[in-house]
Amino acid sequence: MLDQFTFIGIFLIVALIFGVAPLTIAFVLRPKKPNPRKAETYECGLQPHGEAWVQFKAQYYIFALAFVVFDVEAVFLLPWALAYNQLGLYAVVEAIIFILILLGALVYVWRKNALEWM
Q1: Which are the contacts of 13, defined by CB distance < 8 A and separation ≥ 6?
Q2: Rounded to an integer, what distance in angstroms lies between the CA atom of residue 44 and that of residue 12?
Q3: DSSP letter string, 31-97
Q4: 104/69 Cα distance (integer angstroms)
């Protein structure tokens, strides 16, 4: 049993080395020539104007999260739809419950007006 944990420990050490070593090497070898031009905010090659720290409405993030949730759920439903003919009644009932949960989430998001883009 100790051999299994030794393997996991070695794997963890190697994973940490592979993650930390490139960052450390890049930090040591990078050119260090700071100037105000490099510290400016980059806006697609245009001269920046105004503050760099602008607050966005939280509604945009909620809209994006709702999109991601329903997009991922569509990916979960695709294999089910492709194998519909080979599935039994249990899988069909599970898929219907899953779709009902999604519809409940959609109604909730709709009532909270998170789907309106202002």
Answers
A1: none
A2: 40
A3: -----HHHHSPPBTTBPP-S-S--PPPHHHHHHHHHHHHHHHHHHHHHHHHHTGGG--HHHHHHHHH
A4: 13
Phi, psi of 110 (to 5 degrees): -65, -45
Q: Do 105 and 66 lie in a common domain?
A: yes
10 Å CB burial of residue 114 (0-12, 13-18, 19+) is middle
- Count Cα neighbours of 55 within 13 Å in the Cβ-side half-sphere: 3
Q: Determine the average pLDDT of the residues in 39-66.
A: 73
Query: Per residue in 60-83, pLDDT tens?
Result: 788 888 888 888 888 888 888 888
Task: Note whether 100 and 66 are same-domain residues.
Answer: yes
Q: Is residue 52 part of a domain?
A: no
